[in-house]
Amino acid sequence: MATATKVAAAPTVTPARPGPRRVRPLRWLPLAPATVMLLLFLGGPIVYCGYIAFTDMQLTGASTTDFVGLDNFRRAFGDEDFRNAVVLTLVFTLLSSLVGQNTLGLALAALMQRASKPVRTLTGAIVIAAWVVPEIVAGFLLYAFFRREGTLNALLDGLGLPSQNWLYTLPILAVSFANVWRGTAFSMLVYSAALSEIPKEITEAAEVDGAGGLGRFWHITLPMIRRSIGTNLMLNTLQTLSVFGLIWAMTRGGPGNRSQTLPVFMYDQAFNKSLIGYGTAVALLLLLVGALFSMVYLRLMKEEV
Amino acid sequence: MRPTTPLILAVTLAATAGLTACGGGSGSDPDTVKVAYNRSTDNKIRFKDNHLAAVKKQFEKANPGKKVKLIPIQAQDNDYATKVQQMMRSPKTAPDLVYEDTFRINSDIKAGYLRPLDDYLAKWKSWDQFVDTAKDAAKAEDGKTYGVPDGTDTRGLWFNKKIWAKAGLPADWSPKSWNDILDAARTIKKKVPGVIPLNVYTGKAPGETSVMQSFEMLLYGTGDAGADPLYDPKAKKWVTGGKGFKDALNFLKTVYAEKLGPDISDALDPNVGTTVYSEWLPEGKLAIALDGSWLGQNWLETGGKPWSEWSKTLGLAAMPTQHGQAPGKVSMSGGWTWAISAKSRNPDLAWKFIEQLQTKDNAVTWDIVDAQIAVRKDVAQDRKYTSSMPGITFFTSLVKYTHYRPTTPVYPQVSTAIGEAMEAATAGGSSPEKAAKSYDDQLTSIADGATVAAADRG
């Protein structure tokens, strides 16, 4: 995992070798099949999506597909449901990725460093178990946990607290929590690796100088794992932006459209309303949101300490 | 050009050629009919699978060397349709025969997914046995027929006589107006606490179930007899949400606001339809269900939830019009058809399989096991059919009051918009007026402006 952080944190350009660079086509030969495959199976669909987004293609109900220019994008920005989906996506991403998974992952990693081995193993196993179950399974598990006759309300009843119909009253919170539950393991692993890289001497020196636990954490640990934080935030955000199965299994974007994030909105437009063109345009906009986030993180990571 | 460049080009070309080669050739075998149909999401329910397997056997025996490949798709109706539409987009994946809901068929015809069957029908003697309304169910705007219906359904009120007795309501209940239904529900809420008085579906998640089983059952009982409150076939225009539309939403809002219905979160569960027949009705948790003629099939010995007491426990009543205005009763009908996909490479063999499905014996058996209302005159008169199921004569009698949904390509989109309006009015806390307004906006965009104001705009 330690290597993963290094790899992800290296979008910086490697310095070119000195001397004139000769292009040697033969070098590309071994790569040709892979390149062709990528172009066909990755590039092709992406280009095709780019094209569909500017058409009025429908899954059913229309036999012709016409080029409509920017109509789909205009429609999106004038669509109340789209705006609602954007807001919910941001809420979902902030709550579950930036705040939830990231902070919880870091806290777990920091605590596990000081814990005894059995405790560490057990905690790690539990957290990672939530991460390895398939998304759809996690969705159903959490649906069973949150539903009206579910485990959570049984627990609350047992404690004499008023039960809540979570999936109906606060659906976006419920799915955000579900995503935290499921995705924290990844952050925990990244941060565990990063923390173990910090040389003991430095922390010991700080301790000798009289820095308290929190002070050490704030002045030494955080700056030293800054890059891992950036990497982790980026990967987390991109993963969270595209969460679909979890929300679909738990709420289908409902009730109403109160948990309809962009991927769910996209699916609804493209497949329930058969508006493939419009759905694809929304997908491109989602890509843009992801790109924006990534750019911000890349900038943050670039600054030298 | 460097000497190496041609080499690279050659390698690249070879690689791509190899790729395209493995993409082709997976077409269809001329001796196999591929049949796509929807399998129930309830694992206990396999009527359709068993029936099709039996017909497949007959077909393969009667046509040596020919094979039938059944492609079950286990999904909710919406997802099933999406999946099949995607399959029909390419000749490589298109099934030969597709089970199509009449409510979507026009949309799929317009998309060019289906093949007209007129040539086959002209030579097929059994076609005369089909009643006219059923023949029209799969007729497109171009006047051609694209599907062979295998049955239809009607809808009415199922009520639990045991709960009725506890609430002191008359056992021969036959409501004359919407208010009679609400009154009965209120009485039950007061006298028999702990049961759900009335289930009317609502919201987007159940899909067409909520739109047809509850909203349209209400809407088509508003206004005057003979007028279509949803679509004006003469003007070929959609009717915007008028008074009837708002009244129907208001009825639903009342049911959920007064807690006469199930808990809203249960109502918005996509699987609520299954819950109604597998849990609520048999367990005596639900007093009135506005639901379809087919419910009984689930409670037979062979059904997903055998319940021997059902015909004694449940009573039936027709859905009344809003104020009891003529004709007094209302029902909606749908049904499914067998259609041949346009990209099918074995249309003739596919047609042969339709003929096999529609031998009189198979048609009778199918209408019985699937609890369908017959669309063929010879089946409707068959003793086996008429005595097959308690309540079948009641539901068959509703055929004269029944309405069919508008057969236009955009209906599925309109249906989605109605589902959203229902959800807004029952769960979203929006007023029926606001929900109807938002429906109007969507309708204008769906119908490309081909809308007409309701006669009773209020």
Automatic annotation (TrEMBL), chain A:
<feature type="transmembrane region" description="Helical">
    <location>
        <begin position="122"/>
        <end position="146"/>
    </location>
</feature>
<feature type="transmembrane region" description="Helical">
    <location>
        <begin position="31"/>
        <end position="54"/>
    </location>
</feature>
<dbReference type="InterPro" id="IPR000515">
    <property type="entry name" value="MetI-like"/>
</dbReference>
<keyword id="KW-1003">Cell membrane</keyword>
<dbReference type="Pfam" id="PF00528">
    <property type="entry name" value="BPD_transp_1"/>
</dbReference>
<feature type="transmembrane region" description="Helical">
    <location>
        <begin position="233"/>
        <end position="251"/>
    </location>
</feature>
<feature type="transmembrane region" description="Helical">
    <location>
        <begin position="166"/>
        <end position="191"/>
    </location>
</feature>
<feature type="transmembrane region" description="Helical">
    <location>
        <begin position="275"/>
        <end position="298"/>
    </location>
</feature>
<keyword id="KW-0812">Transmembrane</keyword>
<protein>
    <submittedName>
        <fullName>Sugar ABC transporter permease</fullName>
    </submittedName>
</protein>
<comment type="similarity">
    <text>Belongs to the binding-protein-dependent transport system permease family.</text>
</comment>
<feature type="transmembrane region" description="Helical">
    <location>
        <begin position="85"/>
        <end position="110"/>
    </location>
</feature>
<dbReference type="InterPro" id="IPR035906">
    <property type="entry name" value="MetI-like_sf"/>
</dbReference>
<keyword id="KW-1133">Transmembrane helix</keyword>
<keyword id="KW-0813">Transport</keyword>
<keyword id="KW-0472">Membrane</keyword>
<feature type="domain" description="ABC transmembrane type-1">
    <location>
        <begin position="87"/>
        <end position="297"/>
    </location>
</feature>
TrEMBL record, chain B:
<dbReference type="InterPro" id="IPR050490">
    <property type="entry name" value="Bact_solute-bd_prot1"/>
</dbReference>
<keyword id="KW-0732">Signal</keyword>
<protein>
    <submittedName>
        <fullName>Extracellular solute-binding protein</fullName>
    </submittedName>
</protein>
<feature type="signal peptide">
    <location>
        <begin position="1"/>
        <end position="17"/>
    </location>
</feature>
<dbReference type="Pfam" id="PF01547">
    <property type="entry name" value="SBP_bac_1"/>
</dbReference>
<dbReference type="InterPro" id="IPR006059">
    <property type="entry name" value="SBP"/>
</dbReference>
